[in-house]
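Incident log entry.

Two folding requests arrived from the same account within the same minute. Monitoring flagged them as a possible duplicate submission, but the sequences differ. Recording both here for audit purposes.

Request one:
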Amino acid sequence: MKPRIPWRKRLLVRLLFTSVLIALCSVAATAWLAVTTTTSALEEEQGQDLAADNKILAELSGYAADHPDWSGVQHTVRALAAKTGRRIALTNADRTLIADSASHDTPLPPRSAATVDPLHTDTYTEFGAQLSGIDPRAVGPFRLTAAERTKMDLVAEKQKSCFDRFSAGISVQHTPSGRPYLVVEDGTDTSYYYKYGCGDLVMTGATGRNSTLDFPTSTETKALTALTGLARPCLQAKDMDLGGKLSLTYDTTGRNPVSGGFLITKKDVRRSMDQIAKNCVLDARRTQLGPYVAPAAELFLGIGDQTASRFDMSRANKAKIVGAAGLVLAVTVAVTAVVAMRLVRPLRALTAAAQQPPELHVRARVRTRDETGLLAEAFNDLTERRERLEEQRKAMVSDIAHELRSPLTNIRGWLEVTRDGLVDPDPALLGSLHEEALVLQRIIDDLQDLAAADAGTLRVHREPVRAADLVDQAAAAHRVAADAAGVTLLTDTDTDNAAWLHADPVRMRQALGNLVSNAIRHTPADGTVTLAARRDGGDVVLTVTDTGPGIAADDLPHVFERFWRAEKSRSRRTGGSGLGLPIVRHLLAAHDGTAEVRSEPGKGAEFTLRLPAAPAPADVS
């Protein structure tokens, strides 16, 4: 009787329970988050939009930078309030109202959001404001006259037309003071095109070619001179009488309108004095721009006049939430049930296949390509391997019986005829019986080695061994057998004898001997068997190559299987016991090495043994 799985432990039930729990938590969390977020977003202090606030502050700072007072700001305040949906109010430092988008009886928020002061700002992101704290839109006396703007616009358009002939991608932009300047889209310096005759050139020399647009106008020069005069009292007050002079330059792009420093002849005080000069110039700029900008004002922001209703938990809203939650739950349960059934079906097929008797070797019929399908494929592969191992086990028992029966039959037959007095026990008969006993001993020894390898008890006694010595010893041991078969046995080793192994010499001679005897057996007369040893990077490679008939491609994967022989005939004349090559593979594995074979029919075979190389002993020169 098949064991029944309790309902609480079934995969389908657990998946459904988990999905329902997750769906409940998700729906509850989503509903709570939606209600809380909607309510909080409408609160006065928590519902502010930072991007809109920065935009309001930047707009009002620009107005202050372009106007000497706040007299006309009411229209700008109302336009910004209508665009952003915020209540905007401006006051003096003593909270005297300047402008307000709300009605006059609306109280101000408890705290101001920011101070609008174009001469002391850190909210405007233009490069000039970041360096000086002054809004770059505050230009004051540096603003060009109409005539100067017209003249410079004509120069800029003329240069742009010339640059357009070279597909330079030039655009004309204007600074807050009204000065035009050229911008190349790919970042190339505009002076690069001057050599082609573009622009109104006013200077040519070693320093390059410059345009009219690169020099200040008379208005800008006059303002720059006045700024220099405003900065000198500050410099004198700070005892900067060191033989230097103040040098101011004008940035015609308007990003940092005034820059420069105090030129000092004494190098050890140059850095500190230059910073003092910059501070004095910055204070002078604020003094110069003061009459041209609006005074500092406090900015108050709040909720607009429009009324926003909160999300109330009325019966209708509760019903909507419950309905949405129920729909999500239903869809979740349905989808989970479908998915769970698809998951459980192949698992049941796997369980049914696994519960069949082992001798039937039943495969699981699963066609899915997910994790369950991969598990089914692994199960089917395991079943095939088990079936193959069972066939090999049966074949091995039959092969062992055959290998043991042949010499035992010979020994028994000769002993019986000798006992009956039909044959005298002469030396030739005793030698034959001894040879058959040796065959039995070799088979038993091979089986014992394989059993030890399977059990992980195959012992190796490692010591430094020269690879060339192993090759020479294996060749010497099989020289007589090779000569008897008419096969030439050759060796090929490194001349410097640099290939050393840390291995068991007895086991390695056994492995090489199995390969050499196998090669001699399959090589016809007048053929050649070559033993080679060489160093290959961090490995030592031993090869046994013959000129025999080779191995078919279909037989190569089975060469190292037990009791496998290319010739299916069980005649000992055409093959050994089928245990030599499996023993070679296990011996190499015990030495952390590998055994491989490469062959083509009619071109012989090459067996390769690859083992980790070892350093030569210290006592070897």
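Request two (distinct sequence, not a duplicate):
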Amino acid sequence: MTHPSRFPDGGSRAVVYVIYDRRGRIEDFVLHALRSLRQHADRIVAVVNGELLPEGRARLAEVADDVLQRENVGLDIWGHKAGLDLLAGELDAFDEIILTNDTWYGPVRPFGPVFESMEQAEIDFWGLTDHPRVEQGASWTGEVIPYHLQSFWIAVRKRMFTSPAWRTYWDELPLLDDWTEAVTRHEVTFTEHFAERGFTHRVGFAHDRYDTENPSVFNASQMLDDGCPIVKRKPFYFWPVTMDHEASIGKWLLEKVESYGYSADLIWSHLTRNAPPRDLTADLGLLEILPSVDVSYDADRPLRIAVIAHIFYVDMTDEMVDRADLLPCDYDMIITTPDAERARAIEEILAARARPGRTTEVRVLPSNDGRDQSAFLIGCRDVILGDEYDLIVKVHTKRTPQQGFAVGQHFKGQQLDNLLPDAGYVANLVALFQRDESLGLAYPPMIHIGHGTLGHAWWGNRPRFERVAAELGIAVPIDNVSPLAPFGSMYAARPRALRILAERDWRYEEFGGKDAYKDGGLAHVLERMPSYAAAEDGFHTRTVLTAEYAALSHTSLEFKVDEMAATLPGSLRDKTLFLHRAGWMGTGRATDFFWMYLRFNRPDLVPRFERLRALMSAPRRMRDMVLRRSRR
């Protein structure tokens, strides 16, 4: 391809853009970014680390001059190296080479002003953002972090990329497959390395204009207002405890991005597949507190709705129908039950309650193994996989007698009273699906009042969850501490968001008998699966609450967190990191408790123990060597 010159003196620019996708896909946001860079680049080299599907290659070929697929080794650093090697015989044709990757969305603001500013500067390399120097005591690496340009965007001029120093740097750079090693041996040292060799640099949006250590993550909204053309992906799914610590709100950042005209659909379609769902929910504030007055339902665009109710306790049939009748439009009700006697009793109740706009069907299941999970995925598989409905509302008769009356009743109420409480609320719930095609599921948040779910909601289910997810082809990152899941298994969902679950031909015997309905059993594993299956197909989840229950839940959570937080000094982030290191999932060390005590109670003693702490953190072979020497 031939393109006009980009520099005032007739020079030209190349872009090496590195992509990684665990599925071999090319996301729409990547194509948008490359099309926009085309206005400023004479040559675009797209380097794909790892798998690349044929349709992905074809899409890339439309926006890039070269598509280079390589083994996924060396992270994006060696992807850039491969792109530079491809251009090696043509370097004299370019005045600037940009090394960038797919860790940002954009352009949110125009590229033009940044390029125009940098084209006037007499420099050898430049970046969009930078990071301040961090001294050893405050560094997460345990070493001094030098000032550096952030490596997701480094533009290099001819004097530097044709120099012996440049060639030597890349020839001697080792293969870096560990992220921490890549940061410490390349990103944080690159700027200082070349500055010490006489090359000058500049940054577009300097860190000292903002009030955090990493403004590209924590001040992203301000940077957009200042004209930064891109927004990093990380603020939308970074560890929520750190985002909370910095008061960085992903939901507001997304609204800011949209206000500048960038399509949120480009972000949603990527994030849902590639971020842990609970992290995403927390960072983007995906909890809807719905009013009891209809303020959003569009009666001119009714959805085709099926209510699927598994009824084991026949005396709860009236309640199931009453709640379903709160829907703002006609619907079909499909009831599953484990035997003919129950079915006859249910049909009698339904016959006495017949009404226009509601059709009913009772299905007798051959087994109750798996309870509502098997009833849904086996007994109603045709409904999920068919195209007859836009929305499914899944409910069941829940009592939870094994947990005691009060706890069991609360669990039932937390589910049904936050899913189908009154007509206005339910109309607003359906409206969520009317206005957002990327919404896959909505359900009440994880129960915590009366239940020990906080910090433990995987219980014994994660190992089998991981196996089943891999079997189903679900590659969505799995949340570490607790899953994002409809505990209690009542929710509203698009059938398309559940297809991965229903396409598998489940059998009742896989669920086991009554004794198999426990942690580690298939039913409990599948209870935690819907949001991950939906995300794999590009649908996100929102949780929903009434205002009354939101108040109960928040005040209870606030008090519990406050009580736990009182046990340790420091910020909530400090406490969480400390407790994770000290005891979470068996990774703790007694030295962490000791270090925490020193840091907050005897800071005067900290310098004495710095060397000991570094030694105890060193690899075992090095630690043993030093200790042997110290004994001589």
